[in-house]
Write a structure and sequence with these properties.
single chain, Transferase(Phosphotransferase), domain 1, four-stranded antiparallel β-sheet, binds adenosine-5'-diphosphate, binds magnesium ion, MAP kinase kinase activity
Length: about 400
């Protein structure tokens, strides 16, 4: 993917005026709640009727980069997404505006910056930061993901996918979606706050096998739900995208990363570790199969179990990338130490990490695996593990 500066740049006014806000769709709480299955546990869904969003400081225009070509007007290219009023319109699926998001099936989530009190940063990702926020009207703490609107079409697609999937997802193993809105410079989406954080911050020197089993079973069930019910391949399975709360629940987030994005090796790997399956580095390989998520699941499992990313790490500036990629593509698959983990556990990881994607098990096969069978009825005290791991989190004490 080329640098944003080399792309044609578009500037358009995306301010949402009070007039437009008044016209925007107002749906009642009843409609919102009745149109979506209410989860038996968890905080109430936040709804806000505050009209005028407080805009972020920053450029008074929305910059869109990486769209169009020099011969056509750039607006024509992105009008598919941004209508003249400045709303982001995901054709037939959702309209995102300053006060929330309206989905084509009639559901609506109203939320905006005025209702939120920022409570600190939870982490930084490739596209922006994730903040802990307090939603004043409902007293609900949420995680708010900010995505800067220096958009490429691929990124818009990603946002669409994530919003669309998030709003459809009602599953114990998927984080809950509360709403989304945008200002002139950013798209924000609010999701369930998982108060122990992501697994990368919790595994410390490695998690015990029974805890590992519960996490892996939750991940397989979440991934199977995405595939069976929403026809989604996650594409970004890794420890930072598996979240835990202090009651011990384990949930997936950040699914639906656009294929256009993951095809870009440089972009995907700079400053991070790669969880991509070997076949994804093969440019002649077409498409991305669910088997590649199974690889990432296996790799995540080895990392959680051993407390270490199993390939050579990058130096933080993207250095070491070829060593890492070559180890993934040409090296032996990582495995679990057989003196520390049961035969069933080692075999589960080994099957996920088969270099040949067609040999990797499907989700139903994984759920039938002896490792799952061994632990599926075992009561594991996930709450204590989450509490204890949270108390050991290094990053919190640094603050
Ligand atoms: N819903 C959430 N609850 C708590 N922490 C979260 C939540 N979503 C994300 N985070 C934290 O924010 C960090 C940044 O997330 P993200 O932008 O998705 O980047 P990445 O997943 O690549 O780390 C994550 O590593 C995770 O620790
Ligand atoms: Mg993430």
């Amino acid at each position: 993917m080329s640098a944003p500066d080399s792309k044609p740049e578009v500037t358009t006014s995306a301010r949402t005026t009070p007039n437009l806000l008044a016209k925007s769709k107002q749906l009642s709480l009843n409609k919102l709640e009745s149109s979506r299955q209410v989860r038996p546990v968890g905080p109430p869904r936040p709804v806000s009727n505050v009209q005028v969003p407080k805009l972020r400081k920053g450029p008074q225009t929305m910059r869109l980069t990486g769209v169009g070509n020099p011969t056509s007007t750039p607006f024509e290219n992105f009008s598919r997404f941004v209508d003249p009023s400045g709303k982001l319109n995901f054709s037939g699926k959702a309209v995102l505006h300053a006060q929330g998001v309206d989905f084509s099936n009639g559901t609506s989530y109203k939320i905006n910056m005025n209702d939120l009190k920022l409570e600190g940063e939870l982490g930084k990702g490739q596209f922006g930061t994730v903040q802990k926020v307090f939603h004043k009207p409902t007293n609900v703490i949420m995680a708010m993901k900010e995505i800067r609107l220096e958009l490429e079409v691929a990124k818009l697609n990603q946002i669409l996918m994530e919003l669309d999937v998030l709003h459809q997802s009602k599953n114990d193993f998927i984080v809950d979606f509360y709403g989304a809105f945008f200002t002139e410079s950013c798209v924000y989406y609010c999701m369930e706050y998982m108060d122990a954080g992501s697994l990368d911050k919790l595994y410390n020197k490695g998690v015990p096998e029974d805890v590992l089993a519960i996490i892996i079973i939750a991940m397989v069930k979440g991934l199977k739900f995405l595939k069976d019910k929403l026809n989604i391949i996650h594409r970004d399975v890794k420890p930072t995208n598996v979240l835990v709360n202090r009651t011990g629940e384990v949930k997936l987030c950040d699914f639906g990363v656009s294929g256009q994005l993951v095809k870009s090796l440089a972009r995907t790997n700079v400053g991070s570790q790669s969880y991509m399956a070997p076949e994804r580095f093969n440019v002649t390989e077409n498409g991305y199969g669910v088997q590649s998520d199974v690889w990432s699941l296996g790799l995540t499992m080895v990392e959680l179990a051993t407390g270490k990313y199993p390939y050579p790490a990058l130096n933080g500036k993207g250095g070491g990338i070829w060593e890492q990629l070559s180890a993934i593509v040409n090296g032996k698959s990582p495995s679990l130490p057989s003196d520390k983990f049961s035969e069933e556990c080692c075999d589960f990881a080994a099957q996920c990490l088969n270099k040949d994607p067609s040999e990797r098990p499907t989700y139903p096969q994984l759920l039938e695996h002896s490792f799952v069978k061994k632990y599926q009825d075992v009561v594991v005290d996930m709450k204590s593990w989450a509490e204890e791991s949270y108390s050991l989190r290094q990053d919190i004490y640094k603050e």
